Sequence to fold (291 residues):
Amino acid sequence: MGFSPETKKIPFSGGTGEALARIIAEKNNPRVDVLFGGPVETHIAGIKEGVFEPYKPPAYGEIAPRFKDPQGYWVGIADDPLVFMSNNKFLKEKGLKPPASWNDLLNPAYKGMIQMADARTSGTAVTRIFSILEVNGRDENKGFDYMKKLRQNVQVYTKSGGGGTIPVGLAQAGAGIFFIVDALKTRQEGYDVAISFPKEGIGTSVEAIALLKGAKNPAVGKKLIDWSSSPAMQNFYAQYKINFIPAHPTVKTEASLAEIIKGAKIFPIDEAWAGQNRKRIVARWIKEVLP
Fold:
C-alpha cells in the first residue's frame, strides 16, 4: 500500500485546537479532506460538532480498541506521551536535577522560566490539562489550584504544542511540558536538553486521523487514512527517527525511544471523558489560569 506524494497538502502552523476551529468554521464548505494528526481529544470534540464522517480502513480490525472510534469517526496512527523537557545549562546554574515530580515545577527557581502551550489553540495543552486533572484524582478544584500555582512560573503560553521547544533548547526558558515527539526532535537537533517524567504519572494521547464530512475528495482522503493506519506508514517512524509509538500492533517502537520510556509512569488519557469535557475545562482554564 502506498500514497501519492502529489496529493495537495494545506500547510498549517498553528495548534490542533486552531485547526479544529478552522474546520468547524469551514464546515459547510470544507477546504480539506482529512484532519491528519493531533491529540484525539480534538477529534472527539470535532465529532460533537458534526465535522467528521465515519470511515473504517482495512487495518481497523487489527488495531486495539483504544486506537479507534467504535463508529469509525477516527483511527489512531500513534501514541504520543507528554514529557518534561529541561535545559541542562539552566539546571546546572540553578543546582537542579531534571524535574521528577509535578511539584518540582512549582520550585521558585523556575519562576518566569517555563514555557508550555496555550489551551485556546493547542491540543498539547489540552492533553497537559487532563494529565494534571488525572494525577489529582479528577478533582477539578485541586487540579486547577495546581495550575494556578504553576502559572506563577510560566514565562509564556505558546500558540502550538512544540512552540516552546527551541526557547528551552536555547536556554531562553528553563523547562516545559511537551509531547515526546517534539522533545526528542529538539534533542536530535543538537540542543542540550534533559527528558524526564513525573513520578505521579503523565498522560499520553492517541494521534489520530479523521475524514471530514462533505470532503470534496473522499476517495483520496480514505486512501490517506488507509495508508496512515497501516504498517507501511508506521514503519517509517523508526526509519526516520520520528519519535511516535506506533498504533499498529505489528510495528515495533524504535529501540532508543522504547528505552527512554521504559519505567516511566505513563497513562492513557481517557479520550471519551476528555473529549466530552474539553470545551468546559478549557473555558475554565482561560478564566482561572490564563489571566
Q: What stands out?
A: The chain has a mean pLDDT of 95. Residues 34 and 211 are 5 Å apart (CA to CA). The domain at 81-203+272-288 is CATH 3.40.190.10 (D-Maltodextrin-Binding Protein; domain 2).
